[in-house]
Amino acid sequence: MTPSLLERQVLRTRNGLAQLAGRNEPVVAQTPRDLVWRRDKARLWRYRSEDRRHRTPVLIAHSLVSRSYILDLQPSNSMVRFLTGEGFDVFLLDWEPAGPADAENTLETYAAGYIPDAIAATCAESGAGEVTLVGYCFGGVLTLLALAAQPELPVRNLVTLTTPCDYGQMGFMSKMFLAGRLEADDVIDDTGLVPSAVMDEGFQSLKPTDQIVQQVNLWQNLWNDRWLEGYLAMNRWARDQVPFPGAAFRQTVNVLIRRNALASGVIPFGRGEVRLKDIRRPFLNVFCEQDTIVPAAASEPLTGLVGSRDTSELRLRSGHVGLIAGRQAAKVARPAIADWIRRHSLDRKPRTPKERTR
Amino acid sequence: MMNMPDIETSWRLAFDAIERPVAAASESWLQSDAYMDALAVAWRLRRRLTHRLEAGAAAWLHLCGLPTRGDVTQVVNQLASLERELREQRS
Questions:
Q1: How many alpha carbons lie under 13 Å from residue A277 in its C-beta half-sphere?
Q2: Could you list the mean pLDDT of each consecutive 10-residue stretch along chain A, which spans 358 residues?
Q3: Which chain A residue has the Cα nearest residue B50?
Q4: Over the stretch B63-85, which tens digit does the pLDDT of each residue have?
Q5: C-alpha distance from B65 to closest chain A C-alpha (Å)
Q6: Could you tell me which residues come within 8 angstroms of residue A124 by beta carbon, excluding any fewer than 6 positions away?
Q7: By residue range, what is the domain housing residue B36?
């Protein structure tokens, strides 16, 4: 039952004071996990399912632009916890925040280096011959490049979650670099990184009134402990940006934004190029109608660009983060994604390496 | 007479009635060429000014024999380069 106005004011005062005293720090990423592999700043975490029903594990490759705890925000709001509950062993490939030593990391460093190695480590650790590879946001770009560059990788299914493809549809952040208004080097600092503050400014400018709305929401619901816990966790994540490696950022600007290479299906990669048509695994493209960071129009073309015969689309009425955390995620997104993966993980005879390249 | 919970609902409705059109207008202004051009110019200007200020401050600090931010960055970059070499040897 909703408390009376007076009770709410008392609760607001209590929670507001706790907030000011810094005693309301949200606890995130609570699902038990083991670090099973690491190289440089890449880390592979294993979340064991207590009721493993599917042999093929799920490997989630996280984005380079945010922290991975959004996938395990709170026990009641966790993508990885949901998937383990559905009988999948979940592996999460994430990245410690990039430092100056990572400034020269290119897209190839991730797509031809860390991701294939993490897939091999996942197979070795889980005892499975293949993985279901899931890429979130920019992590989706990296998984697409990895699989297009090495179609023989032991990947059974590929799932991209709100992954940008047509950078012509990406809006503000892309347009700032599209017409040469800014060069990549204008935002790269002296250590060769795009500072986290720049990333934060970029995201904040997408919705100029959002900060005020957030404060109003906070005041309105400050009395509600449960709401507050979720808000603080989400708010912490939203402002917890990480630096982006400069070399990978130059490629993003020159190749992905200006040449719109992903949308053309042919992407310069290493000394040659890769083609999305070479991706022949069952493919699920998930995107969101209310996404202001990666609009649906920027993700949607992917479905027709990969070479898979078995392609599916999941269009959701949520925002970029609402896809994996929040009410919409719990009700629609997570069950639908898990159901697709489950249907595509049914036991069958493992394919030979020759069959995998077909 | 308006009861207590209604007061909370009313101020929120009033806020939303103002915020929504303002948000829509600001988001559409944000996508305009004029805004993005101005932002790019402001960004470059800020960067140039910061560099000039740092260079000026660095000259004074060096006169006093003190290290500057640029010196620290240089050391950081040298260490980073060393770490990259170690990574290459490890892999």
A1: 5
A2: 84 89 86 96 96 95 95 94 96 97 97 98 96 97 98 98 95 86 94 93 84 91 90 89 96 96 97 97 96 94 96 93 86 95 82 55
A3: A189
A4: 999 999 999 999 999 999 999 99
A5: 22
A6: none
A7: 4-66
- Determine which helix (DSSP H) or strand (DSSP E) holds A132, and give its type and residue range: strand A131-136
The phi and psi torsions of A284 (rounded to 5 degrees) equal: -120, 125
A180: nearest CA partner in chain B: B40
Chain A residues closer than 8 Å to B15 by CB? 216
In a domain, B71, yes or no: no
In chain B, the number of structural domains is 1
Residues of B with CB under 8 A from a CB of A: 4-5, 7-8, 12, 15, 19, 22-23, 26-27, 30-31, 36-37, 39-40, 43-44, 47, 70, 73, 76-77, 79-81, 83-84, 87, 91
Instruction: State the average pLDDT over residues B26-51.
Output: 91
Task: Judge whether B83 lies within some domain.
Answer: no
Is B48 within a domain? yes
What is the Cα–Cα distance from A140 to A164, expressed in whole angstroms?
A: 8
Determine, for residues A99 and B80 on separate chains, whether the beta-carbon distance falls below 8 Å: yes
Cβ neighbours of A231 (radius 10 Å): 18
Q: For the full predicted model, state whether its pTM sits above 0.80.
A: yes
| Interface confidence (ipTM) of the complex | 0.85
For chain A, the residues whose C-beta falls within 8 A of a C-beta of chain B are 2, 4-6, 8, 39-40, 99-101, 103-104, 171-172, 175-176, 181-182, 186-187, 190-192, 205-209, 212-213, 216, 220
CA distances from A39 to A200, B84, B90 (A): 27, 12, 10
